[in-house]
Every structure is written in structure tokens, then in C-alpha cells.
Amino acid sequence: MRLFSLYLAEGRGWGLVFLSPDPLFDFTFLRTQGEVTCLEPLTPFLPVGIAGCLFHGILRQYRAADLSSAAPVPLEELRDLCLREAGGVDFPFWDWGEENRPAALEGPSPAVHPLPRRDELGEVASLLAGRLLSLREIARLAGYPGEGGTAALQRVLQVLCLRGAAALVPALYPLKGSLVRCQRCGWEGIPDAGFCRACRSEACCTCPECRLMGPLSLCEPLYTAVPQRSAERQALEKAGVWGRLQKLFGLGKRDGGREEAGGREVLCTPLIFGAVPWGKSDRRRGVAEEEAPS
Predict the structure, then answer these.
(1) Contact at 8 Å (CB) between 43 and 5?
(2) Cα 203 vs. chain centroid, distance in angstroms?
(3) What is the pLDDT, as a whole number, of residue 215?
(4) Average pLDDT, rounded, for the chain
(5) Is the Cα torsion angle 69, 72, 77, 79 positive or negative in sign?
(6) How far, in Å, CA of 35 to CA of 13, rounded?
(7) How many Å apart are CA 275 and CA 32, to the nearest integer?
(8) Distance (Å, rounded) from C-alpha 44 to C-alpha 100?
(9) Half-sphere exposure of 294 (CA within 13 A, CB side)
(10) Are 50 and 221 in contact (CB under 8 A)?
């Protein structure tokens, strides 16, 4: 099941908003990076296209603010914002009842899967450089077979995203109502809904143009690397790519925060309030809309 929940993690003087298929794993990882007092879910588990759309709505709300010294936004304010954003899309995937949200997490972390090793992180990060790949494509290239391998790979990718080394890209992104855009091939339209074996929904949808390359669905995440060093950026500048990526540091001008047709991806990286213990002064603040390499 490839469903993601938005959450707010808080520590002393900082907060982080992101989306995850396993908030408990994120909570455990964040506790290894610094003091985390709690992790509160903002939504039930959703297809990543819907979760990314709601996360992007949060970024639009706070994109003009100076978040480096800001206190975390109140939990209920973020939940209300997610509900308002959800009203703009016509995908009946979820029930917003309290009983359908993941449990809040606080105190000591229970035992979970081990954290990825440094060599695992480096290998996957190198595969993502200059590419936009699906989970199954990365699993095949990096050698993560079966369901257990896919789950382990998703933890590697989540750590890379939390560290700012990779960005999550929802494969199909809702634009308005039932209209979606494929973020790999650029197709836009209203796709046919049907049963999805991955998310178990009767109302999932796939891109009709990507079937020859491998179908992409509303519950499918794609990933790309975020350049970290000046040498990487210089190489991308020579290739004509860096100019399209540098808006990862902020949002470009869009009508209502939504991208018009033109093949541009919505990239998801954590939104940070305040000064996190592991952060850098030039850390990225969250989602950006800009072309990713293909």
C-alpha cells in the first residue's frame, strides 16, 4: 500500500511538515537527528498525488514568510488548511474522521526497522542524480527485490528526502476538480478511474500516455536528487539544467500556486519552521514547482 500521511513534527523551537508512508519511521529517524517532542498527523493516509497537493497548499500559504525564526504553526490551523485544500479536488479516496488518522507519536520511539546505512543512502542518491525515477525503477536498478526490498528502499528514500538530498515528486498531480497532470510525460486530462492493486482504491487512476514505459498512478511517487555541492551545480549549469532546479529554494510565480500546462513538476522537500538541530543555514524550505531532470 503506497499511501502517505502529512504530519507535523515538533522539537524545542522548531517544527517540520512533510509527508510519509510511515510516520513512525520518520519520528524514529528525526529523533536520531535532534530532540523531537512529538509527531502529529495532519491527514489520513492518502494517495501521494493527493498528499502532495495538500502539502503544496501549505507551502503556498507560508511561502512569503521568513520561516527561519518562526514558531511552528498551530496543529489545528494546519489540519484546517489541509481540509480546505482537499475541497478543491474530486477524488473520494478518504474519510477525514479522527479514527482514520494515524496515531500521534511522542516520548521514546518504539522499536522499528533499522535506519539505512550510509552506503545505502549514497548508492541510491547517486542513482537519482539527473533522473526522475519511480520506486519500482529504483528498486530494479539498485537491487531491492520483492516487497521487503521495496519497503527498505522506501525508508532509504525517505531519509534522503528528510536530509534534503532528494525530492519526492507525485507521479500524477491534481490540478483542479478531476483534472490531473502526469509529472513524467506532461499529459493532462481527466483519467478513467478504476481499481488499483497498490492502494486498494476503486477510484485510483493512471496516466494513459505512460503505459508503454510502465503505468504511473495517482498513488505512485517519483524521486529525483537535489544537488548538494557547488561542483554538482556547476555541472548542471553547463548542461542547462540548474536554472530550472534552483527554484527549489522557493516557489515560482503561479496562478493560485498551481502550475499551468508546460511539463513542470511539483517537488516535495520538508517545510521547516525555526532552526532544526541538524539544519544548515542554507537549507531548503519545502516544495517547489520547477522542472526536474528526466
Answers:
(1) yes
(2) 21
(3) 82
(4) 77
(5) positive
(6) 10
(7) 16
(8) 6
(9) 11
(10) no
Q: 10 Å Cβ neighbour count for 117?
A: 10
How deeply is 114 buried, as exposed, middle or buried, from its count of CB atoms within 10 A (0-12, 13-18, 19+)?
Answer: exposed
| Nearest by Cα to 242 from 253, 252, 230 | 230
Distance from CA of residue 64 to its chain's centroid? 20
What distance in Å separates the CA atoms of residue 96 and residue 94, rounded to the nearest whole number? 6
The pLDDT, as a whole number, for residue 118 is 94
* pLDDT tens figures, 206-229: 999 887 677 899 999 999 998 765
Residue carrying C-alpha cell 506532461: 186
Contact 129, 225 (CB under 8 A): yes
CA distances, 138 to each of 11, 36, 103, 152, 191 (Å)? 33, 30, 30, 12, 26
As a whole number of angstroms, the distance between CA 271 and CA 105 comes to 19
Whole-angstrom Cα distance, residue 233 to residue 129? 11
Q: Beta-strand (E) ranges in the chain?
A: 3-11, 14-20, 38-41, 46-47, 105-106, 133-134, 166-170, 172-176, 179-182, 188-189, 193-194, 204-205, 221-225, 265-267, 271-274, 288-290
Instruction: Tell me the whole-structure pTM to 2 decimals.
Output: 0.80
Distance from C-alpha of 280 to C-alpha of 293, rounded to nearest angstrom: 25
